[in-house]
Design brief:
This protein is of the alpha/beta class. It has a domain of about 290 residues: FAD/NAD(P)-binding domain (3-Layer(bba) Sandwich), CATH 3.50.50.60. The chain is about 35% helix and about 15% strand. Strands 7-6-15-16-17-14-18 form a seven-stranded mixed sheet. Helix 4 packs parallel to helix 12, helix 4 packs across helix 21 and helix 7 packs across helix 11. The protein is globular and about 65 Å long. The two termini are about 15 Å apart. The structure holds flavin-adenine dinucleotide (FAD). Flavin-adenine dinucleotide (FAD) binds next to helix 4, strand 14 and helix 21. This is Amine oxidase domain-containing protein. Belongs to the carotenoid/retinoid oxidoreductase family. CrtISO subfamily.
Length: about 600
């Protein structure tokens, strides 16, 4: 049995070694940090993440330019900085961090695109924690959310049903078996498949890292293992059960990647089940703590992170080699350029047209409607007066659906936007972050997120931000009311306590985060995405690399590992020379042979 387990994990062990190499020789080469490992950086959004662009601030003799300062860009840049590389990160927004940035309005601090992560990040021995500790110099602590970290609710008229998702595979499975006693086979098979997908991630990672030719061989070898990436969630689950409620419960987190079950790949659903299998966590001090610490790591190596720095073009010479970027009519040169802003923006907007013949495959691939995301989001930022305990606000998320049939709910809403929102997500960052109330006493914040179709907002995209006209304001008011109704339905104690409300729409996301057509999760997580061989860190333009959520998958963890993959692709030779660090290897071994309480059973 033990032997079988070992054999089953050989690919994963190899993955561990390969990915471990991502953090490579950095400890050896690492420059002495000015920030003590145990010093937590001030948890206010620091000026260090708001340094405006000017040519005077650009360091000389850069090793690399990274476009975009989200989780992908930060991970890659920190890894490179720790290898002694001088990295310039250019961010178009006025604060670094991408989806991990936070902002303040009327004395309330709001997060944007990190509401929870899993991956056992609370355990210092885990792989994800190792990565975060590594890139932030141990600068971020993680707070566990409630043991029941998500509740999935259906509401239809006055009828309300819920399913509580508890931490731990054993607990999750036993709750499913209690609720669906006749579906034991389907539930057992589902967990086996989740495990299978988790193991076959090895092939996905290898395909991304290997040179194109070897990548095809890996795809061929791993073909049978990758089957579950190439089927929709609905195709797989309807082969296990006809119970629509069970399917609805197993796919309640479709909003985390934006594809309802009939469109999303089963693999992304399974990876999320695995990711949150041992509970959910939130960064102490808020998500901005990540950029606050990473920027220091980059600066310690002589690099810089500059904001209000929209890159308009990547400079490519006549031999098809990238050698710099253009920004505000300035040209900055570096031997390596990495774009983390998504494949569409990189290939369609930043590569000069006279170089498009080199990226035909990418441009053609992007035309496939199956790699365009199905849905976008709107985020309602709510400022609340009062004490979290008195208001009885939980440290968990709530998902509210009109029924368990997510595809049907989406189809109805797409046809007629006045029909019920197909999903609403509610979370209280002020409760999840134990330091929030020290910074903002007597204040709470809720984030209420609902799906939105980009097409419904597209006509306002070119109008001036904060001044898009009455029609847009009315549309926002209508959507705000619907999200607020949902908030009050679930938390009636909040009525009369609201001090601040603002709604971000898909066009706001495009403006603030440089998204493409409201694609907050990047390219679609459909089966088609996992068949795009061109979606990888290397590109046909020499010295130009991709990173971030389009490289592997969406999510903070997905984007961070996108950063790791790009680091491997850029400096494989250095890695091979210097070997793998002990800490990384220990974390990989922990991940591969986790203690019993963390295992899928
Ligand atoms: C509302 C919402 C909630 C989410 N909740 C969670 C969650 O709870 N847990 C989780 O794991 N994931 C969550 N996600 C997903 C997660 O935030 C993303 O997958 C991840 O942060 C993507 O990281 P990235 O580095 O690829 O891209 P981004 O974070 O988008 O970073 C790209 C950066 O590039 C910048 N940029 C764009 N164009 C240019 C240009 N031309 N020049 C310079 N800079 C440019 C952008 O401004 C941006 O800062 C959420 C996302 C959203 C939108």
């Amino acid at each position: 049995m033990r032997h079988e387990k070992m054999v089953e994990r050989i690919p994963a062990v190899a993955l561990g070694i390969a990915v471990g190499a991502a953090t490579f020789f950095l400890v050896i080469k690492r420059k002495k940090s000015n920030v003590s490992n145990n010093d937590m950086v001030d948890n206010n959004i620091d000026n260090i993440t708001k340094q405006g662009f000017s040519m005077k601030k650009v360091p000389e003799n850069l090793d690399m330019i990274v476009i975009g300062s989200g989780m992908g860009g930060m991970t890659l840049s920190a890894i490179m900085a720790k290898a002694g590389k001088k990295v310039l990160v250019l961010e178009q927004h006025d604060v670094a961090g991408g989806n991990t940035h936070t902002f303040e309005e009327n004395g309330y601090e709001f997060d944007t695109g990190l509401h929870y992560i899993g991956g056992m990040v609370g355990d210092k021995r885990s792989l994800l924690r190792f990565l975060f500790d590594y890139i932030t110099d141990n600068g971020v602590e993680w707070e566990q959310m409630d043991n029941t970290y998500d509740i999935a609710v259906t509401r239809s008229g006055t009828e309300r049903e819920e399913f509580r998702i508890r931490s731990g595979f054993k607990e999750y499975k036993s709750d499913l078996l209690n609720r669906f006693p006749d579906e034991a086979n389907a539930i057992e098979t589902y967990f086996k498949m989740v495990k299978e997908v988790q193991h076959s991630v090895f092939y996905l990672f290898m395909m991304k890292m290997c040179p194109s030719f070897f990548s095809k061989i890996v795809r061929w070898i791993g073909h049978s293992k990758l089957q579950l990436f190439h089927k929709t969630t609905m195709e797989v689950l309807s082969g296990l059960t006809t119970n629509k409620e069970l399917i609805g419960v197993l796919t309640y987190m479709w909003g985390d990647y934006g594809e309802p079950p009939a469109r999303g790949s089963f693999a992304i659903n399974a990876l999320l089940s695995y990711h949150f299998g041992n509970g959910a966590f939130y960064p102490v001090g808020g998500p901005a703590m990540i950029a606050n610490n990473v920027v220091r790591v980059i600066e310690n190596a002589g690099g810089k992170v500059l904001v209000r720095a929209p890159v308009t073009s990547i400079l490519v010479d006549k031999n098809g080699k990238a050698y710099g970027v253009e920004i505000k009519r300035n040209r900055i040169h570096a031997p390596i350029i990495v774009s983390t802003i998504g494949a569409p923006q990189t290939f369609q907007k930043l590569i000069p047209e006279d170089q498009h013949h080199r990226i035909q495959k990418q441009l053609e691939g992007l035309k496939d409607p199956n790699v365009a995301p199905a849905i976008s989001l709107m985020s309602l930022y709510v400022g609340i007066e009062g004490d979290a305990k008195e208001l009885d606000l939980p440290k968990r998320n709530l998902w509210v659906f009109p029924s368990w049939e997510h595809d049907y709910n989406c189809a109805v809403f797409k046809k007629d936007a006045s029909k019920p929102l197909p999903a609403v997500f509610i979370s209280f960052s002020s409760v999840k972050d134990p330091t929030y109330n020290e910074r903002h006493p007597g204040r709470q914040v809720a984030l209420v997120i609902g799906p939105a179709y980009y097409e419904d907002f597209e006509k306002y995209k070119d109008l001036r931000v904060k001044n898009r006209g009455d029609e847009y304001v009315k549309l926002k008011e209508k959507m705000t009311k619907r999200l607020m109704d949902c908030l009050f339905q679930e938390y009636p104690q909040l009525e009369g306590k609201i001090n601040y409300i603002d709604l971000g729409t898909p066009v706001s996301c495009d403006y603030y985060l440089g998204n493409h057509r409201g694609a907050i999760y990047g390219l679609s997580h459909s089966p088609a995405r996992f068949q795009c061989d061109w979606l990888r860190p290397t590109t046909p333009i020499k010295n130009l690399y991709l990173s971030g959520q389009d490289v592997i998958v969406t999510g903070i963890t997905g984007a961070a590992f996108g950063g790791v993959m790009s680091a491997i692709s850029i400096s494989m030779s250095s890695m091979l020379r210097k070997g793998v660090i002990i800490g990384g290897m220990k974390a990989f071994m922990f991940e591969l042979f986790p203690p019993k309480q963390y295992q899928i059973i």
